[in-house]
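sorry for the late reply, my laptop died twice this morning and i had to redo everyting from scratch. anyway the thing you sent over, i finally got around to it. pasting the sequence first so we're on the same page, its 151 residues, then the predicted structure underneath. double check i copied it right bc i was rushing
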Amino acid sequence: MLRNIIRFNVRIYGILLNDQQHVLVSDELIRGEKYTKFPGGGLEFGEGTKDCLIREFQEEAGITISIREHLFTTDTFIPSTFDNDSQVLCIYYLVESQDWQDIETNTLAFDFSHGRNENFRWVALEQLKNESTILLPTDKSVVQILERKKF
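ok and here's the structure:
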C-alpha cells in the first residue's frame, strides 16, 4: 500500500458551535457518495493552517472566524479516501464567529435542492455520535474528543 503513496494532502477543519451547543457540519456529495464532515478544506502552498481555515470558512460559509484552540492532529498513517496516491494529514481547530447566524443552513441532511453538492446544517452536540454519515476516520476521532470536552 505504501508504494503508491507519493504525496501529502493536508486538510484543515473547524469545529464551530452556536449558542445552543449545536455543531456546524457540511453534508457533501463526493464522487457519488454522501459524507457528513466538518467545514474546512485543503491547505494551499504558502498558507498557514489557521489562515487556510479562515479562508475556507469565508469561501464556503461566507463568515469570518477566529481560532480558539487546536483540537486534534492526525498522528497515524491515514491513506486518502479519495486519492490512491496520497496520505492525509488533518488538523482540527475549535473556532468561533460572531456571524454564525449568517450561515445559510438546511434542516435536512443532503438537501441539494439549491444546486450545489454541499450544504451546512447544525447538529446537536449530543447527537453528533449518531450521525451515520460521518464516515471519515479522523472526523470520527474528533467526534469522540468533542464528547469528552466540556463546553
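Helices lie at 49-61, 137-148.
thats about all i looked at so far, will dig more tmrw
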